[in-house]
Amino acid sequence: MAACNGLFVYHILGLASLVAVFYFSLLGEVDLRFPGLLPSPGASQSHDASLPFVERRGAQLFLGGRPFYINGWNSYWLMDQAVEPASRHRVSDMFRAATGMGLTVCRTWAFNDGAYNALQLSPGHFDERVFKALDRVVVEARRHGVRLVLSLANNLEAYGGKTQYVRWAWDEGVGLTASNDSFFFDPAIRDYFKVYLKALLTRTNHLTGMQYKDDPTILAWELMNEPRCITDPSGNTLQRWIEEMAGYVKSIDRRHLLTVGTEGFYGPTSPPEKLSVNPGHWFNNYGLDFIRNSKISDIDFASVHLYPDTWLLHANLEEKLKFVTQWVSSHFEDGDTELGGKPVVLTEFGLSHLVKGFEQSQRDAFYKSVYDIVHESAKRGGAGAGAIVWQLAAEDMEEYHDGFAIVPSETPSMQKLLTEQSCRLAALRHGEVEAKRILKAVCG
C-alpha cells in the first residue's frame, strides 16, 4: 500500500509540476535551468545548451560556420519595461513583431544608473528587481531566436549616463572635477565602471542559471552609446579609456564580441580624404577618431551611426541620400582596408518624422538606400556586417516615441522593407539554422 500511495503522490506531483510550468510560461517566468522546461510553443527551438556564439573571422561575422549578416533593430527600453508586471508584455510583443519580419538582432540598454528603475543604485550597489528584468529580456530574446547587443553606458544623461558617475564621485568627495568628461580620465570613476562591468558580465541569470559571459544569446557588448570627449579633441583621452575598458572586458569575457559604440566620425589621425566625409568640420572636435578607435585589438567590430536629417539640416533629400551612400560605403571600406579586416555594423540609423516637410516616402528611400549598401557588401563578402534601425516600438508606447520610432504594424511600407531585407540576407545563408527559419516562416 505504501508503494501505491507513493506512486499516486508521484503522479499528483508530476501533474502539479506541468501545471506550474504552464502557469509560469504565461507570466514569462519559466526557469530554464532544467532541460525539461522548453520555450513557449511556436518560439525558435534553436537555443539549447549547444547554441553557438556569433564569432568574428576576419572582416565577417560567422554563426554556425556560415557568414552572419545583421538585420536588426533598437529597442533601448526593454529592461525598463520588463521590471513591472503590467508592462512586460511589451517586451514579448516587440520580439514577436520583430521576428515576424525576420529580424535576428536587437540592440538595447543594459544600464540604468541612478534613475527611475535604476539597475545601479550607487557605485557597486544593484537593484535585484531590475537585474531580474534584464534576465527576462535575455530569456525572451533566446525564446525568439534573437541575439542581443547590450550597451553598457550612455554618453548622454538619459538613464544616468556618464553624468551620474561623475556626480557619484563628486558627492563622495573623490572626484577630480565636475566635468562630465572626467568619466574617461578620473581613476575613481574608471574603478566605478569596472565594478559595474564585472557585476554585469558575471551576473547569473536567475531563470537559466547561466552567467551572462557564457550566454550565446548575447551577440556583443558595447562599451558606451555614442562616446564623446569634447575636452580633448586630440582623441587621446577617449582612446586610452577605450583601450583600458576593452582590455578589462576581455579579461573577464573572451567569448563575446566587443564594440565601442561610436558614431563613426573621423578624427585627427584620419587621412584628409576621410575627414572630408564627416558631415561638417565641427564633428572633428568631439574627441572621436573612428579608425584609431576601431583598430584596437580587443575591439571585434566597428560601430557607426547615421542621422542625415540632424547632421545635414539644410540638405534636400537627394543630397541626404548622396551623403548616406558616401558615409556608409566609406566605413564599410574602412573595415576591409584601414582596419585591416574588421566587420562594420551600422548600429543606429534613422530619419525623424518631426523634420519639417517629412514624408514617409523619404524615410522609405533612406532606409532602402542603407539596406541596398549592406546587401551589396554582403554579396561580395565585404566588411559590411549589417544594420540596426533606430528604433522600433510596440503598439501603445507613444511615451517612448522620439520622432524616429516605428511601430511595424502601423507602417506597412517600413514593415515590407524590413522583411525584404531579412529575406535577402537570409538567402545568403547567414547562419544555416536561422536562415532556414527566416526563409520558411517569413519569406515563403
In sequence order, what are the helices and strands, one letter per element? HEEEEHHEEEHEHHHEHEHHEHHEHEHH
Query: Overall mean pLDDT score?
Result: 89
> What is the fold named in CATH at topology level?
TIM Barrel
Major β-sheet profile: 8 strands, parallel
What portion of the residues fall into strands of 2 or more residues?
5-15%
* Computed structural class: alpha/beta
Shape descriptor reads globular
Low-confidence stretches: 1-28, 31-48
Helicity range of the residues? 40-55%
Number of strands: 13
Rg measurement, Å: 22 Å
Strand neighbour order, sheet with most strands? 10-9-8-5-4-13-12-11
GO biological process, one term: polysaccharide catabolic process
Keywords: Glycosidase, Hydrolase, Membrane, Transmembrane, Transmembrane helix
Catalytic activity: Random hydrolysis of (1->4)-beta-D-mannosidic linkages in mannans, galactomannans and glucomannans
Pfam families: GH5_mannosidase
